[in-house]
Amino acid sequence: MKNVKLISLALSMLVCFVTMAQEKTITGTVSDNVGPIPGATIGVQKTKKTATTNYEGKYTITAQKGDVLVFSYIGLKSQTRIVGDKNVIDVKLEEDQQTLSEVVVVGYGNSRSKKKMTTASSTQMIQGRTMGVEVSANYAITQASPSPIIRGAESIGSTNEPLYIIDGVPAKAGQIAKINPNDIQDVKVLKDDNANSLYGLKGKNGVIVLATKNELYKNLSEKELDAKLTHLTTIQPVEPNQEDYDTFVENAFESPKTAPLSTFSIDVDNASYTNIRRFINNGQAVPKDAVRVEEMVNFFKYNYPQPKDAHPFSINTELSDSPWNSKNQILKIGLQGKNIPTDDLPASNLVFLIDVSGSMSEMNKLPLLKQSMKILVNELRKKDKVAIVVYAGAAGMVLPPTSGDEKKTIIDALEKLNAGGSTAGGAGINLAYKIAAENFIKDGNNRVILATDGDFNVGDSSNTDMEKLIEEKRKSGVFLTCLGYGMGNYKDSKMETLADKGNGNYAYIDNIQEANRFLGKEFKGSMFAIAKDVKIQIEFNPKQVQAYRLIGYENRKLRPEDFKNDAIDAGELGSNHTVTALYEIIPAGINSNYINNQPDNLKYTQVQANSNNYTNELATVKFRYKKPDGDKSIELVQVIENKAVLLQNASDDLKFSSAVAWFGLKLRDSKLITNKSSEDITKLAKQGLSNDSEGYKAEFIRLVEATKEAY
After folding, report:
1. Widest CA span of the chain, in angstroms?
2. Among 162, 154, 124, 335, CA closest to 697
3. Which of 128, 167, 270, 697 is the most exposed, fewest CB within 10 Å of its CB?
4. Where is the signal peptide (predicted)?
């Protein structure tokens, strides 16, 4: 008997060895008519072996010669390929017309509407309801008859997707997306050694552990879990008829002969981009005044080098052709903030100022806000401390300053918050700054984090009263971060005013993924300033430049005399942050319809004739900044050569940032661009598509695609 078992074991091992010897590694790319598809599934027929494409649409799977590979993606026709001698199999999936005829929503809008996009739901809205986790789903399914299929682009590359655990059971991102946030009792984020020690290799990208109330999903199989999550109530889009945006006029072309200096404050805010994304995802028209081009451009990361000297940022310039006006040029100015290691960051003194008024009761406001703050709490260290102040009819402190390692205490305080009452924002701001000042850490990171829909009162509720209040509080040395939530009654104008006037930055949180990006992945840049009151002043050479215009930054422009005035507030730069500004230039000697005839013989503005007419210089750019705890500014000067490269030879950063600016100008219906083709914008963005491990740039391309018939 013993010999029989040994023979049987040997035969089994031989079969396994032969099988392994016959297997080979298959790689390739899965795409559709738009481009590579992240999150497509590749399976070996009649086995349980599967693989998923990464953010570039690439996959790797092992199979034997003769095996049948099945390529599938929601909303597209599945295809099969037989494994032969080739090790590379590329597949292009086509639309499933039968499925699409039943689809209410595709991508980011209604493809059948040309003037106004209207949808019942969208991928991002569903993701926005998934509180406490980072949802990287590539699709979501809502219960209807017939079931509508919503296809979107993943914001987080599938190669970076964490492991999800619900009540001790492994789950998929699509299942997470269906959970009612009100059912969630607790959320924990495990990283590095903590994740690996408990979950092994499966936890290499981190683990999101959800515990529901009464363990609703414990011991369920995948099919049972799907059945229980059948009924999904999405957040319905609300018409933005009560939303408030500051009006502004697009920057016009100016002559360096009559306006030799262009001065502005940097802007690291990116609220406008995520807000625009929300409108497009909801199938709604984007209000023109909601489009701040510089915030769209600065949402994305660019590949600028780290500073090599004692200054906190590097300066990078590039000159190329304008993609929308062929006779013009684009000048890119990029700043790269120094990346400070987390261990070297100063201790934080944070005060969460949370709006719990009645207007915050919707699911994408206070519930999303609380789960967002949990992501931030997970980043805190023992030396950090947090206090929580709330305001509604009145303001009060619900958590005194608490050490960052007491995460359960902080999260428990957040969980107890409920919405109701009026909006006494002024009282909340006063109390939050008072607590921050009482616990001020010298040389530390002292910051108030205001989270609201912006619908609050300060004095008689005017923006003027709010400006006076926040400018006074700025003198305390406490920085400000504004987090915006919600739709329908959102007050963007107040949020922007607070951030601009209060040594602050501003983000709009449209879903939990954005919360994870801003408060988790970019925690250092969002919460730790390395330079404040950063100003830029550029002087163009009239020998080379007939006219120029700053693209965006309309609300950040300064007077020339403000540049050296240290009393004038400007923007802050965070650890590892990038800031990009674009100028459109009409070179000297070019006939243009965008400028009036400029006099050539002005007595006092002529460049003095001498042996050096600066013929090789396009412009001189100056920067001023203060240290985070400093009062006196430091100046840097750099000359920009009149040396342009063809657009096709320009850097990926210039191509992509120009494409984003181009899209923003199109959404604003700019009269200063001749070409408004979505196809051309998409083409340029794809040419600059690099350094996109998180997939945000790929998502932008799909947003442009979704609006091509509506704009």
Report:
1. 112
2. 154
3. 167
4. 1-21
